[in-house]
Design a protein that fits this description.
There is one protein chain. This protein is mainly β. It has a single domain, classed as Beta Barrel (Elongation Factor Tu (Ef-tu), domain 3), CATH 2.40.30. Helices cover 5% and strands 39% of the residues. It contains one helix and eight strands, in the order αββββββββ. It has an eight-stranded antiparallel β-sheet, with no helix packed on it. β5 and β6 form a beta hairpin. The longest helix has 5 residues.
Length: 101
């Protein structure tokens, strides 16, 4: 693996995907525990997200980091809303990975 890519790695397991509801028309909110991190994730970054179509994934854009209360045992979980995919298209249990530049 290229050192530049390894230095900019950010990945998390998708444990849930949902819509935030009225007033948040963008896309899906993904939540789950970190798997690997060597850089921060920011608004505008691209994530490669696995879809429910076998073997497929989609590049999506991070648009916000909502303050969703997931309970005390999940305080360190990633919470990111992305555009370009709806929650029913996300493969829960898959791994979201920051796309290379």
């Amino acid at each position: 693996m290229d050192d530049k890519v390894a230095d900019r790695e950010f990945a998390f397991e998708i444990r849930d995907a949902f819509e935030l509801g009225a007033g948040f028309p963008v896309g899906a909110t993904l939540v789950g525990p970190l798997v690997s991190v060597s850089t921060a994730l920011a608004v505008g970054d691209m994530l490669d997200v696995p879809t429910t179509t076998e073997g497929m994934s989609r590049l999506v854009t991070c648009v916000q980091f909502p303050l969703v209360n997931l309970g005390p045992d999940r305080l360190d979980w990633v919470r990111v809303t992305v555009s370009g995919i709806r929650s029913h298209e996300v493969r829960v249990g898959g791994r979201a990975v920051r796309a290379s530049e």
